Amino acid sequence: MASAEADALVISSDPLHPANLIPELCRSFYQLGWVTGTGGGICIRTGDKVYIAPSGVQKERIEPTHIFVLPYPQPPPSPHTDRVFLRRPTSNLKESACTPLFWNSFDLRNAGSCIHTHSQHAVMATLLWTGPVFTISHQVRGTRLLVMSTSAVLRFPSQMIKGVRIAGTGTALSYLDTLEIPIIENTPNEEDLKDSMAEAMVKYPNAAAVLVRRHGVYVWGNDWEKAKTQTECLDYLFEIGVKMKLAGLLTVLNE
Amino acid sequence: MASAEADALVISSDPLHPANLIPELCRSFYQLGWVTGTGGGICIRTGDKVYIAPSGVQKERIEPTHIFVLPYPQPPPSPHTDRVFLRRPTSNLKESACTPLFWNSFDLRNAGSCIHTHSQHAVMATLLWTGPVFTISHQVRGTRLLVMSTSAVLRFPSQMIKGVRIAGTGTALSYLDTLEIPIIENTPNEEDLKDSMAEAMVKYPNAAAVLVRRHGVYVWGNDWEKAKTQTECLDYLFEIGVKMKLAGLLTVLNE
Amino acid sequence: MASAEADALVISSDPLHPANLIPELCRSFYQLGWVTGTGGGICIRTGDKVYIAPSGVQKERIEPTHIFVLPYPQPPPSPHTDRVFLRRPTSNLKESACTPLFWNSFDLRNAGSCIHTHSQHAVMATLLWTGPVFTISHQVRGTRLLVMSTSAVLRFPSQMIKGVRIAGTGTALSYLDTLEIPIIENTPNEEDLKDSMAEAMVKYPNAAAVLVRRHGVYVWGNDWEKAKTQTECLDYLFEIGVKMKLAGLLTVLNE
Amino acid sequence: MASAEADALVISSDPLHPANLIPELCRSFYQLGWVTGTGGGICIRTGDKVYIAPSGVQKERIEPTHIFVLPYPQPPPSPHTDRVFLRRPTSNLKESACTPLFWNSFDLRNAGSCIHTHSQHAVMATLLWTGPVFTISHQVRGTRLLVMSTSAVLRFPSQMIKGVRIAGTGTALSYLDTLEIPIIENTPNEEDLKDSMAEAMVKYPNAAAVLVRRHGVYVWGNDWEKAKTQTECLDYLFEIGVKMKLAGLLTVLNE
């Protein structure tokens, strides 16, 4: 499993190789408060290979040799195994609990990378946008804020919306477009979010991310640069949306 | 276009060469939250050459070879081209959408550098100072706060005002001076801000910056040090102005 | 006392040796605001040796040679000395005032590492959860928030609870479990917290940490990784708990 | 003036030499938001020599060769010069406007170092503690908060008080002691603060710092370590004091 051939999948002198990028990006995400306490993570898919950091480890201290590599697509499940790997680390590291959720982004959006954060901006957004159905209208430029209890639509104009792409992998939104991010409820086991996340992605085909109540957010893109850029833009929007709400700004705009 | 001669414009062992400084400063601005999600940017003009970072890229990962170089002033527009370049990167990088706005700072203020941030402090300031005409008087030392709906004047005493220069390129303000920063409305295409930004700069000839509602701020100076210093001072003033407003401090001062 | 033999206890080329790790981790904790002003600290126990940083020094500038090494368990107290050391630094550094509190984590939980922070999130939590007995019910998934005046129990669902272990050294909590962190009152001398901390640890046998009112928090784990991870998770929970409380979110959930 | 002999005063391979320490500490203070926009600064006195950073420069980019060196005490003023220097940088750098204020800390407290920050926590504290005479009683452990209009006394128990020394240069305060920090009004020219700062230091002989309304704080100590430690402790106390006030915590305690 961790043969020399398998290890070659994660050894490269190219700093942009996924096995080198994932540790570097995780260190940066740690500084942003997105992956503290071993939470959060990132996967990168290059064609038929998926690179994923292990579960339950300090994300800012990951080494390339800690990376799991999986084939994409996965072969049909067999009675012997849940999941097939091209490479597993030798140490007793566990595969990421996010794996089935990352797979949603590949299967439903053909994404090349998916980022999961526990950002407090994302979590506070899921706590302040609680529904059942909440509407704010008459905002500048005719946009609206609409929130539902099990899935939420945030609508307010901000330059940062232009950094988000339709469905996460399409063309960029314009300043006048509406940004829609569904919110799903958390479950005790991260794997169990797979179905409700997929459901939200189907119901909101233009959504570039899925928020998980009291937990965090999943954001994807065509490649790691676009996934990272969109995660930054959405995190910015969650942060300023929370600030606006706490400052009573949206209520004023509702009048 | 990216000939050896053109490339020589961005290759230097001097860390203070604009092609080296722009990547370094962008990394620093990223840490401050000013240019996340590929937003924001900086240009440096040294006499007849203007150095600008490309559009839509991760600002904290720019390399000197990514820099565009343009002549200043630009030759008259021809039917063949909108803009003339001394150097374009070989990769398929797009020129900055901020270019016409940076040009305003050269043409109207003779600036040597202009910085554009998406700082949340700037954006929150544009959301809390909403007008139509709002006046706060009887503040300490007789200064006043005055805000209009399409352009705003912030007036409150703070030591950091002394770091801002009259018109951005003149002598430093004193502690007792009034700081005036106009706010213009955002547009779907960044280029379309050119005229309203120019209008605000003419209407407020002493302004060292222009805020853009729900978007960010443009700040200029005689050189990159002065542009950076003023951006820091203004960002500090936006941040503490927002804190004061949310703490009810300005309202109290209005009595 | 600081003989060559004793010095060998803190000299190693292994970056994961406790004498190298403690300075590195303290620099990182300083960046997080946990150990500014010489406050806070960390100890690591490897079998029968305990490594502790000195008291009253700038935690972000500690060198391996500043580390104290103590035997565990300590020999019975003699009339000549309060505490036995395997190594003391040559310079006039004082032993950590946290030593008896760190010892609680060894004696009562068999911990391998204990972290003490002055994080403002922890302190604000001790100020906002003030009791005497305060209950919030009907929260999502039936969890409850319960606070008592001299010891507090915080209960609200969050993904980050999964990063905390039962008693700090047991199995991980599930998303549906209740997180209990007792709060004890501060004393003028840090050493005098020993008994009330031990009492709280006995009264709350599942608690992974003890908060100290107007002071900070002590968090332990089986080793330094698990102690650090749990400190990050708890700090995250204190921070978002304070944000929720200030946003009126818990009050709403109480209805 | 900048002869080889004078330059030797700022050239050293010792990282703890004041000419090396000042640039390093200023970079660290910049990260903390204390000296952005060229504001703030630090001086270090070693016996009869005072090392000071220049005025109006980017504090995070200072080099050892930018440092001014002055004799302490200064010779009596002559008709030819205001101030005597042992070394001035060759470039056209201006001496620090803080010089007379730093001198207060030497003359009145025999300090070895003085730090000046524009920290927003300090400034917000000067805006929220506005007097005329404001008293909060019945706090935990019998401490009180007392604020006057032109000088303020902050009193609330916090572990971080133990990091502050009586008069800034004496023995450490205990957890039960009262922390007193006078607030003086700002003036257009920083030099003009000299007399009111000295007056406040005489009136509050135990104060370890002086706050300047809408401006920042001056903190001193026996050496740079103690000045830095106390600046961190006080900044922590200003920050959490502001948080407590905005959370309504002090008002509740007043009842």
UniProtKB/TrEMBL annotation, chains A, B, C, D:
UniProt GO cellular component terms: cytoplasm
Entries under SMART domains matching the protein: Aldolase_II
Start and end residues of each Class II aldolase/adducin N-terminal domain: 20-242
Catalytic EC class: lyase
Catalysis: reaction(s): 5-(methylsulfanyl)-D-ribulose 1-phosphate = 5-methylsulfanyl-2,3-dioxopentyl phosphate + H2O
Chain positions recorded as Zn(2+) binding sites: H116, H118, H215
Cofactor(s) in the UniProt record: Zn(2+)
NCBIfam families: salvage_mtnB
Protein name: Methylthioribulose-1-phosphate dehydratase
Source species of the chain: Gymnopilus dilepis
Gene that encodes the chain: MDE1
